[in-house]
Automatic annotation (TrEMBL):
<dbReference type="Pfam" id="PF11742">
    <property type="entry name" value="DUF3302"/>
</dbReference>
<feature type="compositionally biased region" description="Polar residues">
    <location>
        <begin position="111"/>
        <end position="137"/>
    </location>
</feature>
<feature type="transmembrane region" description="Helical">
    <location>
        <begin position="6"/>
        <end position="25"/>
    </location>
</feature>
<keyword id="KW-0472">Membrane</keyword>
<protein>
    <submittedName>
        <fullName>DUF3302 domain-containing protein</fullName>
    </submittedName>
</protein>
<feature type="transmembrane region" description="Helical">
    <location>
        <begin position="46"/>
        <end position="66"/>
    </location>
</feature>
<dbReference type="InterPro" id="IPR011223">
    <property type="entry name" value="UCP028770"/>
</dbReference>
<keyword id="KW-0812">Transmembrane</keyword>
<feature type="region of interest" description="Disordered">
    <location>
        <begin position="108"/>
        <end position="137"/>
    </location>
</feature>
<keyword id="KW-1133">Transmembrane helix</keyword>
Length: 137
């Protein structure tokens, strides 16, 4: 008789610990958000409860959402914007350099085409002169 009550008490205790444990685990993202003074604390907290009903499918995303914000740097996009500005500046510089190189290549090709066309014209004129000389003979 005593063991029956002991088993029932142990079963209730284990069920309560598991139930409370699940609630505590699902509040971890909210605790992180609260500690970091996240601007979306309430949304993360409510989403943690919703996660209980979605079979924990969104809980990892809540963890990520809570850890993205830090009080000292915010979302961290300011540095990203600076890096993008630097990259755009470098790309503009490279575009200017490529344009300058294309102009140089065009200038270098011009005399080459003129020199190449001159011997061909001379060869053609030499061939016609040779043909005229053969007719005369």
């Amino acid at each position: 008789m005593f063991l029956d009550y002991f088993a029932l008490g142990l079963l209730i205790f284990v069920a309560l610990v598991i139930f409370y444990g699940i609630i505590v685990i699902h509040d971890i993202p909210y605790e992180i958000a609260k500690e970091r003074d996240h601007p979306h604390q309430d949304a993360i907290h409510v989403s943690g409860w919703v996660s209980l009903f979605t079979l924990h499918a969104i809980w990892p995303f809540l963890w990520i959402w809570a850890t993205l914000w830090r009080k000292d740097r915010g979302w961290g996009f300011a540095k990203l914007a600076e890096e993008q500005h630097d990259i755009h500046h470098r790309v503009d510089t490279l575009i200017d350099q490529v344009a300058a190189l294309q102009q140089e290549v065009a200038q270098l090709k011009q005399p080459t085409t003129q020199t190449n066309s001159t011997p061909k014209q001379q060869t053609t004129s030499n061939n016609s002169t040779d043909a005229q000389n053969q007719e005369v003979k």
